[in-house]
Design brief:
This protein is of the alpha+beta class and 88 residues long. It is built from one helix and four strands; from the N terminus they run βββαβ.
């Protein structure tokens, strides 16, 4: 099944989900982190992606991020080693 992973990095928690090509949410994870612990958010993301992948039958075709203070306040449509998301 073709799917993408979306990650929303907030000030105190990370929300992540796997989404099918037709927009169906396949799985969701919400993990808090301690903003005072340097790079704890990165450690959490590093475990979230494989966890979401393990719940699917294949690797994602795209990875999208939403970060605080991102230019234009828009998510990234695709990252290295992935194909662009539809419409992008």
């Amino acid at each position: 099944m073709r799917y993408a992973i979306g990650i929303d990095l907030g000030g105190t928690s990370i929300k992540a989900m796997a989404i099918s090509a037709d927009g169906k949410v396949l799985s969701k994870i919400n993990r808090p982190f301690d903003a005072d612990r340097k790079f704890e958010w990165a450690e959490k993301i590093r475990t979230l992606i494989p966890e979401l992948q393990s719940q699917q039958d294949a690797a994602p075709v795209a990875l999208a991020w939403k970060l605080p203070g991102a230019p234009g306040d828009r998510p990234v449509r695709a990252t290295s080693n992935t194909r662009p998301a539809r419409g992008g």
